[in-house]
Design goal:
108 residues, alpha+beta, Beta Polymerase, domain 2, four-stranded mixed sheet, disordered N terminus
């Protein structure tokens, strides 16, 4: 890679930050990148692993929450231009939480 060339992580971080205002209006407090992209081991086939924290006031309840999360995943996928694996915080499964914490990079 040449000096000044953006990595895929840099590109995804820039895109997420460019859409921060709109995502916050949609009830997203924070977006973290984790997994192979955050570790620098992603390849062109890798998905983008994201963990989001939602504002409780904007968070749908019951089955409506499933639709809200799926809509958010689709929106994130469209803006980053790659498949997105979305996890919503707080993460209750200890193994998954540990995996996320190992290499999280906060976008905002």
């Amino acid at each position: 890679m040449s000096i000044g060339e953006l990595t895929r992580l840099d590109t995804v971080m820039q895109v997420l930050r460019a859409h921060e205002a709109a995502l916050r209006r949609d009830g997203v407090r924070h977006v973290d990148v984790f997994g192979s992209l955050a570790r620098g081991s992603a390849d062109v086939r890798s998905d983008v692993d994201l963990c989001v924290e939602l504002d409780p006031a904007a968070h749908a309840k019951g089955f409506a929450q499933v639709g809200q999360i799926e809509d958010l995943r689709a929106h994130l996928q469209a803006i980053v231009g790659a498949p997105v694996d979305l996890v919503v915080a707080p993460v209750s499964k200890p193994d998954l939480r540990r995996h996320i914490d190992e290499d999280t990079v906060r976008a905002f």
